[in-house]
Write a structure and sequence with these properties.
It is a single chain. The protein is an alpha+beta fold. It has a domain of 46 residues. Helix content is 28%, strand content 35%. The strands form three sheets. Strands 1-2-3 form a three-stranded antiparallel β-sheet, with helices on one face. It has a three-stranded antiparallel β-sheet with strand order 4-5-6, with helices on one face. A hairpin with a 5-residue loop joins strand 4 and strand 5. The longest helix is centred in the C-terminal third of the chain and has 20 residues.
Length: 130
């Protein structure tokens, strides 16, 4: 679960997991503290990408839904932070492209209609593999 704090970064800012939220600057610590409940409520609804180091000391990414559930994660660890950032960037670009095309995604799964060991392309629950 994310940690919400108020920290001094030139001006007072609301931070999530130690990182300031851009665009939320306050003149006083009290102003920033008063915003924390609203910011927390808003950010709880949004998915977040968490970059972290695993037990082996490798960097990984994790996509966390607003309810705190992990919905996707990296399948491998990276020795350098910029490598894991690049890997997440690739995943993000794929999803942005998918969303820009109306959310159409090809799903491949085992199919009872065909007698083979592979997977079939499925659209709205129906096999569309010739």
């Amino acid at each position: 679960m994310s940690v919400y704090t108020v920290e001094k970064w030139g001006s007072w800012m609301v931070c999530v997991d130690g990182r300031p939220i851009q665009g939320i600057c306050c003149a006083t610590k009290e102003e920033a503290e008063a915003l924390v409940p609203r910011v927390k409520a808003r950010y709880m609804e949004l998915p977040a990408v968490k970059l972290y180091k695993d037990k082996a000391g490798e960097y990984r990414w994790r996509l966390v839904a607003g309810n705190g559930q992990i919905v996707a994660d990296s399948s491998e660890g990276y020795t350098r932070l910029d490598d894991v950032e690049r890997a997440w960037g690739t995943v993000r670009e794929i999803f942005e492209g998918w969303a820009s095309q109306g959310g159409v995604m090809h799903v491949f799964m085992p199919c009872q209609a065909h007698q083979h060991d592979g997977f079939c392309k499925v659209d709205q629950g129906n096999c569309v593999t010739p």
